[in-house]
């Protein structure tokens, strides 16, 4: 086994490094020099090696997902532990880790439940952008800078709680494995865990970006025989077909609502539908596209702040199931290392989702690629 290289020279000291700061929404990120404090008790300081850019980061920048700014965004990272605070037992300096926005404290109601993964220590539903003790480890130009969902990966060094840090195999390929910190498990797990897609079934995936592509891979792995992919950006269709989508539809090309088109294509509606975009309209369309009696609709997309989902409750009375899924219902510290092992054994195809790699300093170009739909997943390398 190869041993990761690390230095303990910086342990206990403030590290000065580069980070991309989001000073306000709807503006480019700016690469700045930041000071990163040493980790406190229960915390881990990590040298970031790679980070994906997720649709949720873009929702923060366009103001639809509210979290305090200025902040260092990014929540899909892979790195090496630089130093640990007191009482940290599950990782040590030099360990290879994934940096994940959803913790697993193993003590709260959700963590102790066999099915729950929405750890009560998470910072997702009303993000405050600070560590659990109410402070931040980042300073830029004398100003305190928030973290994002306890993660912050758009920086050369970050500090996270141990409960959100997942130790992975020493031989994991660090340039690509970051995708297993958010996009891949979110989509794949929505299919195999949340929906429990069955062999021979028909699935519909709304949104063929990074997360939707991983849903497609999950549906395919579960044996779905028909996978209908929906996107307004037809650039996505070629890749989607390569991943396993059997029919690609652009809703803007039809005069009638897309749910009606799907009902006609599938006769009685799909067995499983997934919303991986984050708009109310597409959530309703996904619900109405699944079979009225036994269809299952899984909401993955993050809807704009304060929006409300509204639909005729009779749509559920007939037997449909509507559910949501966070990071694919994985209990991150228990389950994600196994996904990494399966990736390394080539049992799951994560690499095909990665279409671009850029040096970290070109982060704004990475966001441009995401917004224009030219990429599925773009990875930043540090
Ligand atoms: P992405 O930008 O890569 O993909 C979104 C796709 O949706 C793009 O291909 C768009 O072209 C397409 N699209 C946009 N509007 C429409 C529309 N009206 N109709 C059809 N297609 C459309 O983002 P992503 O894949 O990284 O993220 C997708 C969503 O998943 C986003 O809302 C993000 O916040 C959410 C997410 N959820 C979790 C979770 O745990 N539930 C985790 C990570 C991301
Ligand atoms: Zn994400
Ligand atoms: Zn918990």
TrEMBL record:
Which species is this record about?
Sarcophilus harrisii
User: What is the official name of this protein in its record?
Assistant: Enoyl reductase (ER) domain-containing protein
**Domain Alcohol dehydrogenase-like N-terminal, first and last residues per copy:** 41-170
Cofactors required: Zn(2+)
Q: Where is the Alcohol dehydrogenase-like C-terminal domain?
A: 210-338
Q: Which UniProt keywords apply?
A: Metal-binding, NAD, Oxidoreductase, Zinc
Q: Which gene encodes it?
A: LOC100922070
Family matches, as InterPro entries: ADH-like_C, ADH-like_N, ADH_Zn_CS, GroES-like_sf, NAD(P)-bd_dom_sf
- The region annotated as signal peptide is none
The biological processes this protein is annotated with in GO are:
retinoic acid metabolic process; retinol metabolic process
What does the sequence similarity comment in the record state about its family? Belongs to the zinc-containing alcohol dehydrogenase family.
Instruction: State any GO CC term.
Output: cytosol
**Top-level taxon:** Eukaryota
Alphabetized Pfam families for the sequence: ADH_N, ADH_zinc_N
A GO MF annotation of the entry reads: all-trans-retinol dehydrogenase (NAD+) activity
């Amino acid at each position: 086994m190869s041993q990761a290289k690390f230095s303990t020279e910086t342990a206990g000291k403030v590290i000065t490094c580069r980070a991309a700061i989001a000073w306000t929404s709807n503006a480019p990120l700016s690469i700045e020099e930041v000071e990163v404090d040493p980790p406190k008790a229960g915390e881990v300081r990590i040298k970031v090696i790679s980070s994906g850019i997720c649709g949720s980061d873009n929702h923060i920048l366009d103001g639809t997902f509210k979290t305090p700014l200025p902040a260092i965004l990014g929540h899909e990272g892979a790195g090496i532990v630089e130093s640990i605070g007191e009482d940290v037992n599950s990782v040590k300096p030099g360990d290879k880790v994934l940096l994940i926005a959803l913790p697993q404290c193993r003590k709260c109601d959700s963590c102790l439940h066999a099915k729950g993964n929405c750890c009560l220590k998470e910072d997702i539903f009303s993000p405050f952008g600070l560590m659990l003790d109410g402070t931040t480890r980042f300073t830029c130009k004398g100003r305190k800078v928030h973290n994002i969902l306890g993660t912050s990966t758009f920086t050369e060094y970050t500090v996270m709680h141990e409960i959100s840090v997942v130790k992975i195999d020493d031989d994991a390929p660090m340039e690509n494995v970051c995708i297993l910190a958010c996009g891949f498990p979110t989509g794949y797990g929505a299919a195999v865990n949340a929906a429990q897609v069955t062999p021979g079934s028909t699935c519909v995936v709304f949104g063929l970006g990074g997360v939707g592509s991983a849903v497609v891979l999950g549906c395919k792995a579960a044996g779905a025989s028909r996978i209908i992919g929906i996107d307004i950006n037809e650039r996505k269709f070629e890749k989607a077909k390569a991943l396993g989508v059997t029919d690609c539809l652009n809703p803007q090309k039809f005069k009638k609502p897309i749910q009606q088109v799907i009902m006609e294509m599938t006769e009685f509606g799909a067995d499983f539908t997934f919303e991986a975009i984050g708009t109310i309209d597409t959530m309703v369309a996904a619900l109405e596209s699944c079979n009225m009696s036994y269809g299952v609709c899984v909401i993955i997309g993050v809807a704009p702040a304060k929006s409300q989902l509204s639909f005729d409750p009779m749509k559920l009375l007939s037997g449909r199931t509507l559910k949501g899924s966070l990071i694919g219902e994985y209990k991150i510290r228990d389950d994600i290392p196994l996904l990494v092992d399966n990736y390394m054994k080539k049992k799951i195809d994560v690499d095909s989702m990665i279409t671009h790699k850029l040096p970290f300093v070109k982060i704004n170009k990475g966001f441009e690629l995401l917004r224009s739909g030219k990429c599925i997943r773009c990875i930043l390398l540090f």
